[in-house]
Amino acid sequence: MFGYLDASADTQWVRIMPVREELFLEPRPLDFIVTMEHAESGESIVMQDSLFSYFQGYAWNFRSEMDIRPGQTYRITASHPDGRSSHTTVQLPEDFPTPILHTIPGGSSGGVEIYTRGIERIADVRTIYTFELPGAEGLHTRAFHHLKDTTRQASGEFVIRMDPREDTRALQAIGGPLFDGSMIADRRVFIASAGPGFHPFPFLDENVTALPGGISNIENGTGYVAGIVSKTIPYESCFDENFQFIACDLLPPPW
């Protein structure tokens, strides 16, 4: 059982797969009923299954449009007709104010600073680019992780200091020597706060996290389901009437 519940998303997705001793390259019936229950109210729904095909196999992903709220607790249970079942209980963090982004002048060497408030545990930081590729039709999207650029201040709040040249080099590696900044249609930053018990996976030993049960919050099973609240903000600075930095409202994509 693997995934996360995001109070900022309108649809939740959780992957449910049996523990296997071999790689299933062809779909096999799952026969599990997956439910999600809001612990505080007792409201429960059955999640809908969808079969996803991947390069090296397939997976069953279950979705729900249940209203997930910050600070609340949810229980996900996967039950089989033969009596087997696995479950996990996920507590979401409280909501937090929209972070403030400050672009530092300096041309290609300029940086980006993002200031957060009200986050106790930070789960993820990503820059999300929508761009064109030379000689290709349509728009493409790619995200780059920046949790490593996050530090906690003495006040307890987090500050993210990023060097945009890292993203530029990564995009040029994708787009080739003809790629330039004019091909970027949109840039945004995704920031997620995590609920209690969250493990900072990017900083853990991969040999530990890859082992069944190495890092798991699933009862009678293995895997991990987290609870988060996320914000996606424009990659730009905004000011108030006194020329003080403020949080930008989320702008619609330009297409």
Largest sheet: 8 strands, mixed
Distance between the termini: 36 Å
Query: How many distinct helices?
Result: 2
Average of pLDDT? 87
Dominant shape: globular
Helix content: under 10%
Widest sheet, order of strands: 5-6-2-1-16-15-11-12
Structural class: mainly beta
Name the quaternary structure: single chain
What percent of residues are in strands? 35-45%
The string of secondary-structure elements, in order, is EEEEEEEEEEEEEEHEHEEE
Would you identify the regions where 5 or more consecutive residues have pLDDT less than 50?
Answer: none
Radius of gyration: 21 Å
What does this 3D model show about the protein?
It is a single chain. With 255 residues, the chain is mostly beta strands.
Question: Features of this protein?
Answer:
single chain; 255 residues; mainly beta; eight-stranded mixed sheet; 6% helix; globular
Set down the secondary structure blueprint.
Elements: E1 2-6, E2 12-15, E3 33-38, E4 44-46, E5 48-54, E6 57-64, E7 73-79, E8 85-91, E9 100-103, E10 112-115, E11 122-131, E12 140-145, E13 150-152, E14 158-162, H1 164-175, E15 184-194, H2 206-209, E16 224-234, E17 238-239, E18 245-246
Parallel strand pairs: 1-16
Antiparallel strand pairs: 1-2, 2-6, 3-4, 3-7, 5-6, 7-8, 9-10, 10-14, 11-12, 11-15, 13-14, 15-16, 17-18
Give a nutshell description of this structure.
This protein is mainly beta.
